[in-house]
Amino acid sequence: IIILLAKTVVLVIGLRLLMTGCASFSGAKGRTILRLISNVILYISIILFLIKVLEYLGFSPATIAAGVGSLALAISLGAQNFVADIFAGLTFVFEGTVHVGDIVQISASGSPDHRGRIVEVGIRSIKIQTRGGDLITCNNRNIGSIRNRTQMNSLVICELSVSSEIPIDDLEKMMKEELPGIGRMDRQIIA
Questions:
Q1: Contact residues for 126 (Cβ-Cβ < 8 A; gap 6+)
Q2: Nearest to 92 by CA among 28, 40, 173
Q3: pTM for the model
């Protein structure tokens, strides 16, 4: 059993290292897909390890298959939310809705809107880090809408209080001179 466990651990670690190495060559979508594949491989490896342990303990493969089938049926009835999370997560990835690193605003049922940078798109959930550093996990099935702020530029309207004693012409001149400098100080401001 120890040798089998060691082989499984080496396989999982090796695959994760391979995925991590490949992720550095891919874009955000590639990293997201590789992370999903890595999680699926991990789950399959655990299941195969458990089956091998049961075989080692003397259970026949037919008995294991029947037990796994019955267990799968029971789990599928109880895990409808889990399956909904998986399908929603796959939809997010393959439609290209979001990628790791995107700035998003997520509307999830039963909770306030969350805005932040996506740090992980998993099989069951999306994790975002807010500007304040909080890590928020949203189950995929609960996500009502996602506003991706990365794919298009956002319009920001600022209201400034100005003394009525300043002539409009002077104010316009000052704005034309100073605003480009503000844009050069912060590379996220493009116009």
A1: 89, 92, 98, 106, 118, 120, 137, 138, 140, 143
A2: 28
A3: 0.48
